[in-house]
Design goal:
By secondary structure, this protein is α/β, with parallel strands linked by helices. The protein is built from 16 helices and 8 strands. The protein has an 8-stranded mixed β-sheet, sandwiched between helices. Helix 4 links the parallel strand 2 and strand 3. Helix 1 crosses helix 13, helix 11 crosses helix 16 and helix 13 runs antiparallel to helix 16.
Length: 404
């Protein structure tokens, strides 16, 4: 029996490695977009001067930092709740953007009880507007209502840059986001901000978090207009405003806990989207303990399962088959041990590109079965917290409500 389970686990892993968009190679990165654009411009028969920013505008290569003609207008909208420890760095990185076009920042203070708004205003930049958000009405999550207030204040820019208050951006990030969106007529460009990976808990669990996300939403499929699958990373989303309005605006996803992926689904119906890894957007939030990452995952895991006990049970069984069975088979001896070892080796190899991206030792790949077990526990606890009325807990707000 164990040998059969180990064989099934191996077959599933092989299917994941070769039949799910080669997600594990982590090839969808913003620096690869730049390389492909340059290569295209250098090919015989191509005309780099045709790489314009938008209809009727001059080519990208002719636009300098002091020339805002032809560059689309952008407004960054940042919801913030009790972020005084990071707000100066995150908003400061937005104000330091070298974007040549019209750009301003709207920070929505979402009922903070600390000095978030005061710290932001102290930056003293005329391009920054700090709004005092009002309490969210029933039927909205707090974050999305804050975002909606910022968007209402933004007016009618060409793009909205939705980013979180705990994300720091490289100075060229916005310019590259807009260029990528305009070249490829994208309605959404999203970057998976690089999470901190310094503490033992972060080294143990963070690369796997992104690995599992990529497995669930293969970036190559997200970026393929022919595929229905859609996803985004809420820390950095450049959105075409007109497409957002056609999709029903933020109100259309007002109760979503996993709001970034919900927004991506609606926007992909309006046009092509793109999601990739980056080192130009970095999270400022530290997760020094396993419990901190546990909370991050459990806040939304059950929502991802549609609040369904049946889907939860199937997910737990599936994760056990993927991560527990290979280890159990390896320890049981005989044919099961061989199959378990092969499966363990396959997942270890698959984990290497993500470990390399995060600068971690390849030996962490051997821990993936144990890491998977931790995520099983986090997922179960997410459901328990929802059943107890504490689902989606974020800074004092329980926002996930299981259907009755």
């Amino acid at each position: 029996m164990m040998a059969l389970l180990a064989l099934l686990s191996l077959a599933i892993w092989l299917g994941l490695l070769f039949g799910r968009g080669f997600f594990w190679l982590a090839r969808e990165r913003d620096d690869q977009v730049e390389l492909s654009s340059r290569a295209s411009a250098a090919r015989p028969g191509t005309n780099p001067a045709s790489d314009a920013v938008g209809p009727g505008s001059r080519p990208l290569r002719e636009l300098g930092r002091d020339d805002n003609l032809g560059w689309p207008s952008v407004v960054a909208v940042v919801p913030a709740r009790n972020e005084s420890d990071v707000i100066t760095r995150s908003i400061g990185s937005l104000l330091a953007q070298d974007y040549p076009g019209s750009f301003r920042v709207i920070l929505v203070d979402d009922e903070s009880t600390d000095d978030t708004a005061l710290a932001a205003r102290a930056l003293g930049d005329g391009r920054l507007e700090v709004l005092t958000g009002v309490a969210h009405p029933q039927g909205w999550t707090g974050k999305l209502f804050a975002v909606s207030q910022g968007i209402a204040k933004a007016g009618a820019p060409d793009y909205l840059w939705l980013t979180d208050a705990d994300i720091a951006h490289a100075p060229d990030n916005l310019r590259r986001l807009v260029a990528h969106a305009e070249r490829n007529k994208l309605v959404l460009v999203s970057l998976m901000a690089k999470l901190r990976c310094d503490s033992f808990a972060e080294r143990f669990l963070v690369p796997a978090f992104i690995f599992f996300f990529d497995m669930l939403f293969p970036f190559a499929w997200v970026n393929d207009p022919r595929k229905r699958i859609a996803a985004a990373a809420g820390g950095c989303m450049l959105v075409k405003r007109e497409a957002l309005e056609r999709a029903g605006g933020i109100e259309a996803i007002r109760m979503e806990i996993i709001d970034d992926c919900a927004l991506a689904r609606r926007l992909k119906a309006q046009g092509p989207i793109w999601l990739g890894l980056t080192e130009r957007a970095e999270s400022l939030r530290a997760y020094p303990r396993v419990a901190d990452i546990h909370h991050m995952v459990s806040r939304s895991a059950y929502a991802q399962l549609g609040y369904s006990p049946l889907v939860l049970a199937a997910t737990v069984l599936g994760m056990a088959l993927l991560y527990v069975v290979p280890l159990a088979g390896f320890l049981s001896g005989g044919l099961a041990a061989l199959l378990g070892a092969l499966t363990w080796a396959a997942m270890t190899i698959a984990f290497q590109p993500m470990l390399h991206f995060y600068g971690r030792s390849p030996f962490w790949g051997l821990a993936l079965p144990l890491i998977g077990i931790f995520y099983v526990v986090f997922t179960i606890d997410s459901a328990v917290q929802t059943w107890r009325g504490r689902g989606g807990m974020w800074k004092g707000r329980a926002q996930a409500i299981a259907p009755t």
